[in-house]
Amino acid sequence: MKIFLPLLLVSGVAIADSAGLMRCRGIADGPARLACYDALAVPAAGTAAGSTSNSAGKVASQPVTAMQSPSAQQKPDQFGLEAKAANNSQLDAIESHIPGSFEGWSAKKNIKLANGQVWQIADDSSRAHYIDNPKVRIRRGALGSFYLEIQGTNASPRVRRVL
After folding, report:
1. What's the pLDDT at 135?
2. pLDDT means per 10 residues in the chain (163 residues)?
3. Among 11, 89, 102, 143, which residue carries the largest CB count within 10 Å?
């Protein structure tokens, strides 16, 4: 019985907020609709019904921010070092080139890019590919992996940033 009481309280708050959601949904102007959604009361964490009341008996809530502001973007020099960086916004890919003559790759080989980053081949692939100053693109893959795309080849070895 003790478990169901908090669930009932929270569901009551959700039902009460659905009227506000329906009201906001009916607004045609985009900025006005967003302002309406932003004005909805968001339950504060740690309270039974997710709200607190002040001396007048009105319900006060604290906004919950789950996303970082769009102005805080990840810098290209931090790409691949997410575990060491405190910034949560992420780039999808970076582009650079490998200075000088490139002869291909093999497992555990380090590849230094023109931007100063050093990436290591993280899989067991190898390929001979002779080209001067090839353009490269390192893109983000699933589950925190990164892939190196090299100009003139359709293979994309998995890499990890070492420097």
Report:
1. 97
2. 55 61 83 80 52 45 41 73 63 94 96 96 95 96 94 95 93
3. 102
Same domain, 83 and 157: yes
Shared domain for 82 and 24, answered yes or no, is no
The predicted structure's pLDDT at residue 44: 52
Which residues span the domain enclosing 36?
4-60
The reply to whether 111 and 146 lie within a common domain is: yes
Give me the sign of the Cα torsion angle 121, 123, 124, 130. Answer: negative
- Based on the domain organization, do 40 and 86 belong to the same domain? no
Give the Å distances, CA to CA, from 101 to 36, 115, 133, 135.
58, 16, 6, 12
Count of structural domains within the chain: 2
pLDDT at 138: 96
